Structure formats: C-alpha cells, structure tokens
Amino acid sequence: MAFPRRPSAFLRYLVSALLLALTFYSLTGPNNLSSQIGPLLPTMSGRLKSILYEHPIDNLIKDAEREFAKKISRTATTLEAAAQAYRKRRGRHPPPGFDKWYEFANNNDAIIVEEFWDQIYHDLEPFWGVKPAQIRKDARNFEMRIEIRDHKASSRSDWFWTQIWLQTIQTIEHLLPDMDLALNAMDEPRVVVPWEDIRRHMRQATERRVIVHPKVVVSEFTRFPPPGEEDPDEEEAPETTWEHERHYWLIARRGCAPSSPARRTQVATDFDNAPSVTSGFHLKHMRHGYVANYTLSTDFCHQADLQALEGIFVEPLSVSTTKSLLPVFGGSKLAVNNDILLPAPMYLSEEDRFTGAEGASIPWASKEPTVIWRGTATGGFNRESNWRSFQRHRFVAMNNGSQLALAESSGASSPPPNFVLPPKQYCLAAQRNNSLAQWISSVTDVSFTDLMCSFDGFWPGCNYTNPYFAASEPVPMSEQFRHKYLPDIDGNSFSGRYLGFLRSTSLPIKATLWREWHDSRLVAWKHFVPMDSRFGDWYGILEYFLGNEAMGVKGRDDVAEKIAMAGREWAAKVLRREDMQVYILRLLLEYARVTDDRREVMGWVGDLGEAVDS
Question: Which residues form the Glycosyl transferase CAP10 domain (predicted)?
C-alpha cells in the first residue's frame, strides 16, 4: 500500500516561518487573516496554499450544513408536537382548524417544521394592530378579490393570476371559513406602511399576543354575509390613497427605520452616469467578500447605494402604492412591503417555460461546465438617462468579454459605463495578467433576448444601448439545463424561473432583493449559492467552483454538484405543489382569525384535553 510522502524538511520550515509571520501581522494589522494572506496566494503553489488557506466559501458551506441540520431536527411528527411548537414560537394557540390543517399536511407527506411558516406571521402580525372590521372592509372594497362563502371559493375577475390562485384555493376550499382576499395584479407590490406606523401596530400586536385559558377558547369562525351584502359590524373605512411616484426609492425607504442608511443617506437623482458601488454598505451581510446572511442581503435598508443599482428603485414599470395597511395578497415583495405573500402564480401554473421539466434531470456529469443566462432587459422602465442603474444590464455587461477587455486595458482612466472590476480582496488569478475578459468569455454565455428599450421618440429606440448590448436568440429552459451553472437575476420583481432552477440538476446562483413564501425553507450555501445584488462576488464564486485552468487554479466541481443535488432533493420534499397548498391553507386560517372580531380568544386546543375539562 502506498502512503503519501511526508513534507520535506524545507517545506515544514517554510510553513512554520510563514505561520509565525502571519501570526505577527494578525496581532499588529487587520483582523482579517484573508486580507493578509490574500496577496500571497497567487504566487503560492497549490500544495502550500491548501495548507495555509481555507477559502471563505468553505466555511460558509460548513455553517449552512450545521444550520440545516439544526432546522430539520425540529421536525414535528405528531399533531401534539406541532401544536406545542406553534405555541412556543407564536405565543398564541393555533388557529381554529389547525387539526384539519395538520391532517391535510400529513396526508400530503409535508415536512412540518414550525419556522417554515415564519413568513406568514411576519406578514400578518401587524394586522393584529388593526380592527378586524376595518380589515374586512378593506378587503371587500378591493377590486380584484377572491370570495369564500360556505366552503366555496369564487371570483368575478378573469385575470389569469387570479384564476390560477382561485383554482389552487378551490382544492382546499372545503377546509376554509368565510373570507375575502384582495389580490395584487401587478408585478410590483402595493403596500409600504411607514416604519413608525408598523412599529405602533406591532406594539399593539404584542399586547394582544397571549395564550388564553383553554376553557374560554372559541373554536369556530364567524360566518360572513353573502357577497354584495353589507357586514353590519364593518366600520366605514377611510378612502385609500394610491401613490404613483415614479422614483420608487422615495416610497420604499419610508419602510426603513429612521436611523437606517436608506433613510439617512442623500437621495440619488442622477442616473445618467456610472453608478457608485459602495462596499461599506454590504459589510453587514457579507463575510470575507461573500454573502453570509442571505435574509439580511435581501433587506435594502442598510444598503443605501442600491437606490442607484436596482431598476425597481429608479423607475419601475408601474407604481400604485399606499401607505395604509391593506390586506393585499401577492407573489413577492421587498423587505419593507406589507403585502401578504402567496406562492406566485408562475410556480402554481407549472408552465414549462418556468419549470423546464423536460431537461431538469440531465446528469451532472453530462452537463457543460459553463454558465448560461438568457433574459429580457427588464427591471423597470429603462431609458437613455437611467439604464446604467439597472441590475440585469449590469450583470450582462460584467459577462461581456469586450466590455471587460476594455475595462482591463483602460483602467481608471476610462471606467466601465455600469459596473466596476472586482476588488483585489478576491485575489482572482485572471486579474494577475489582465485575462479576466478571456477567462469569463470561456466559461459564460450571458445575453439579453430583448433589449426592451424606451423609444423616447427615436426608432428603433435602442440607440442608447446598441453600443453595449446585442440581443441573442432565446434558449428554452430545458436547454439551459445542459449547463451546470444558472445565475438567477431579478427582473421587474422576483424571477419566476427560480423554482425550476432549484428542481433541476444544475446549480442556482441567486441574487435578489425580493422575498417569497418559501424563503425560510431554503438554506443558502446548502441548497443554492447566494450572490450579492451588486455582483461584486460573481467572479470569486465562479473561480471557486469552476477554477481557472489557464492559470492553474483548480475548481470544485464536486462541491457544486453536492449543492445542486441537495437543492434538487430538498425542493422535491418542501417546494412541491402540495407544499404550496399546505402553506396557503395555514396562511388563510391565520388570516381568517385575524379578521374575526373574536380573534383574541380564538384557537384550537384539542391537544389540551385535561386543561379544557378542568
């Protein structure tokens, strides 16, 4: 049997000397060991580098494994355990119908971990600070809605999103009490209540959060009058004011705390020049250059520079927003929005353009070790005066070999129009000899399929982006699955392809500011790779997984495959259509309670038999 050779004496002495030197510098210099050893890495041999240095992503993956194991250890396997976990986490009894919800979930093989439903309580908790009659009135007055009476769901709207939601709710209508659901038909969310008002609502909600004695618990919901008839208990709700301010940052930031950078930083008004990427704003959610807190990375309140780096903040396609706390249901939202999340219609429709089911099972070993992205130039209303601030334009430019080559050769004298080259902290091998453009061109295939340009009185209307971009033919998702790496970039709101990516055998690399129903079920670096919305970590992520053969940098194909397969396996367990039904049922039972005048004493206490009888 052959044994590995022991390191030579010289190598042992060299390692010892370097470790002593690094120890000295760590005591006298910056605390970040990576920042000290980083400049030495490109000149070290692979063997020596592996002895001295562990990549930051290695540690993030280990943390993710521990987080996921801890999360899944809290799985409830009985109704009693689920109810106990509910009271511990929510501070109330479960809602009426909780036993039927558990039975439905269990019959559909749902994994029941109480924190999987955290988003529901984040969304609904402020409404405990609003009178139930007002919530009911606001919902009944909303133009697009679903009405549930006597266990039958219906809608007078033929909008296709409404119909998809309606068809899903009809599969569980026999378990639902009476209610009205106001629905958002737009890509963009509708509600941004000022932070100060939400704080007041949350304070009132906390005061009403109590586990009442089982003997006084009410276990039946109040019935609603038929659609069109007045509710005698409803109060006259004030007329809702809708805002149409095109500069959405001015609206969105009111949902942030007064002390936050979003509220305190000067508002950007000029989007005609290259945007400023300020690294200091992302330190709160990054560790050594990579996303360490995915949830925090989707919160823009500490990231004031994103006001000029995301199309939604610059000029959305449409704006119709209120500062009133209305019970509006939608498919996605920003961290500050107060809309109530449902699984998005794209996920419920199971359309092939969103799922790519035909090619989702291609074996990893049969795929091209490359990146592919196709999409339209969405993100908002891009114009000659603002396109440089749109996220998809930035991402496509960062993967354009010609633009990268020009940026490398010009240096600071002629910076790129809408992105910046990666900082030295990533120690990219390709930057040692200005070969970033060549390397990226060899491993990525990124292009727009439609420039979606504003005409602004010109024809063909794309004169302002033609020098930088050219549209390519679309690539069906089933064909995209022939590539190992699938970046997912926000458009006008969230990306409807994400669930299809997770269900595939490719590796999703996700950059987003949008919250969705499933966020608490997924663990970044375990089920997908998170990316900062500035994309400054993009090249570092690629080098970690793909390596750089020309520069002698070895990739980690096995690690990429492990994450891709873990995401696929987990999606098949917790992101099925059945899981969406279970989520919606739980959400609507909670919503029905919060709109009931007796809500503070309503609940399910069937597991507390002795206490009820005493």
Answer: 305-598
Going by C-alpha positions, the residue among 388, 389, 380 that lies closest to residue 306 is: 389
Give the whole-angstrom CA distance, residue 442 versus residue 175: 54
Instruction: Please give the average pLDDT of every successive group of 10 residues along the chain, which has 614 residues.
Output: 43 49 41 41 50 86 99 98 98 99 99 98 98 96 96 95 97 98 95 99 96 97 86 71 95 98 96 85 95 98 98 96 98 98 92 70 97 96 95 98 93 85 93 96 97 64 87 94 98 92 98 98 99 98 98 97 99 97 99 98 92 53
Check: CB of residue 532 under 8 Å from CB of residue 291.
yes
CB burial of residue 558 (10 Å; 0-12, 13-18, 19+): exposed
Query: Rounded to an integer, what distance in angstroms lies between the CA atom of residue 595 and that of residue 548?
Result: 58
Give the model's pLDDT for residue 29. 38
Q: How far, in Å, CA of 206 to CA of 204, rounded?
A: 5
> For 390, how many CA atoms within 13 A lie in the half-sphere containing its CB?
26
Distance CA 120, CA 29 (A): 46
pLDDT value for 229 = 76
Radius of gyration over every alpha carbon of the chain, rounded to an integer in angstroms: 26
3-state secondary structure of 568: helix
- Collapse the DSSP code of 333 into the 3-class scheme (helix H, G, I; strand E, B; otherwise coil) and give the result: strand
Cα(87)–Cα(212) distance, integer angstroms = 11
CA dihedral (574, 294, 564, 502) in degrees, to 10, reads: 50
* 3 state DSSP class of 8: coil
What is the distance between the alpha carbons of residues 216 and 470, in angstroms, rounded to a whole number?
A: 67
Whether the full predicted model's pTM is greater than 0.85, yes or no, is yes
Asked if the peptide bond before residue 460 counts as cis, ω within 30 degrees of 0, the response is yes
Residue with tokens 């602004």: 456
The letter for the amino acid at 415 is P
